[in-house]
Amino acid sequence: MELRKAHFPGSSPIDAYGNGGFRFADMSHRGSLLCLPSGIHGWEATEESALTLDLFARVLAEKEGSIEVLLIGTGREMRFIPPDLRAGLRERGIVCDPMNTGAAVRTYNILLAESRAVAAALIAV
């Protein structure tokens, strides 16, 4: 059996979240997600993870200008974004907006439906 990194090549609204994962595009995924213009990717972040630039490397690797707003779903509770992470994202023209994961999913779906340049980093709850 071959295990591959989780990747869905496209954008899709998130249909459900909880129980440690997400449902989207008639599929389910256990664990956290990065919803980017290049697709939806599995992400190693947890509620205990330090929010560092390294953790967001895939976000920073996206085509410049393709993300204007990054919604960061920080888990069950909203966490503040460290100044160095906020500055690193800002250097790429990305405004980050932290909130709990449920609020981030709902906001992502709305902005995606409006065809906005949005991405989401969603920590599973």
Write a brief caption for the model.
The chain is 21% helix and 32% strand. With 125 residues, it is of the alpha+beta class.
Please give a structural write-up.
This protein has 125 residues and is an alpha+beta fold. The chain has a single domain (7-122), classed as MTH938-like (Hypothetical Protein Mth938, Chain: A, 3-Layer(aba) Sandwich). 21% of the residues lie in helices and 32% in strands. A 6-stranded mixed sheet has the order 1-6-5-9-7-8, with helices on both faces. The chain has a 3-stranded antiparallel sheet with strand order 2-3-4. The radius of gyration is 13 Å and the shape is globular. The N and C termini lie far apart (28 Å). Pfam families: DUF498. It comes from Ectorhizobium quercum.
Strand order of the largest sheet: 1-6-5-9-7-8
As a percent range, the share of helical residues equals 10-25%
Counting structural domains, the number is: 1
Percentage of β-strand residues: 25-35%
Radius of gyration: 13 Å
- What is the number of strand segments? 9
Pairing-aware structural class of the strands and helices? alpha+beta
In CATH terms, what is the fold-level topology?
Answer: Hypothetical Protein Mth938, Chain: A
Provide the CATH architecture: 3-Layer(aba) Sandwich
Shape field: globular
| CATH level 1 class label | Alpha Beta
Order of helices and strands: EEEEEEHEHEHE
Number of helical regions: 3
Low-confidence stretches: none
Q: Summarize the main sheet.
A: 6 strands, mixed
Q: Averaged pLDDT, please?
A: 94
CATH superfamily: MTH938-like
Q: What gap, in angstroms, lies between the N and C termini? A: 28 Å
